[in-house]
Amino acid sequence: xxxxxxxxxxxxxxxxxxxxxxxxxxxxxxxxxxxxxxxxxxxxxxxxxxxxxxxxxxxxxxxxxxxxxxxxxxxxxxxxxxxxxxxxxxxxxxxxxxxxxxxxxxxxxxxxxxxxxxxxxxxxxxxxxxxxxxxxxxxxxxxxxxxxxxxxxxxxxxxxxxxxxxxxxxxxxxxxxxxxxxxxxxxxxxxxxxxxxxxxxxxxxxxxxxxxxxxxxxxxxxxxxxx
Length: 227
Fold this sequence. Notes:
Layout: E1 2-12, E2 15-23, E3 33-37, E4 49-53, E5 63-68, H1 73-80, E6 86-88, E7 106-111, H2 116-127, E8 134-140, H3 148-157, E9 162-167, H4 173-179, E10 187-193, H5 194-206, E11 214-219
Parallel strand pairs: 7-8, 7-10, 8-9, 10-11
Antiparallel strand pairs: 1-2, 1-6, 2-5, 3-4
C-alpha cells in the first residue's frame, strides 16, 4: 500500500496540508490515524516512520496529512516530496478516537495541531447532515489556527455546534470548567501534544471527570512550545 501525493498547501505558519491518493484505495473512520514510512538519506534519531491522523473526511476521496514542517529530517523529506511522489503505508487506518454516540454532552478539546481528528470527524458529519451537538474548545499559541475559517462556517450553519477559542494561554481544567458548564457530566475528547494531553487529562480527572468519560489522543514530538 502506498500514498501518492497529489497536492500540498501551506495553511498557516509552518503548518502544511499534504493530500494523497491511496493505492489501493482504503477507508477509514473519521478520527483515525495511519502509519507511514518515508525513507530518506541520513535520518535523524526520530527515524523514517510516523503516525499521522487523517485530517480529511472519507468523502473527500483524498488522504490528507496536516502537520507542522519542522527541522526533523522526516518533515524536511515530506516537505520536499514532489507531486507524484509516494509515501508507503505500513498499515491500514487504526485508532478509536472516533465519534461515540452518547447521552452526555460532547466536548472536543484541541491543543493546536490536535485539531486534526476533530476536523475529520466534524467535516464528515457536516457533509452527511448529521447532528453537530458538540462544544469545541480550540487552543493555540497564536490566532493563526488551521481550519479556523471552516470551523467558524460550521458554527454559523449549525447552532448546536459551539466553538470557544483559547489563545496564548494554557488549556487547564479550570479554564475548561469556565468555558463549559457541567463539564464533569460530559464526554470529553482531548487531543494535542503529548505533555499537554497527559497533564490536562490528569487535571480533569482530579477535578471530578470520570475516567470513562475521557478519550485522549496523543501527538508525540510536539510540546506546548511548538503545537
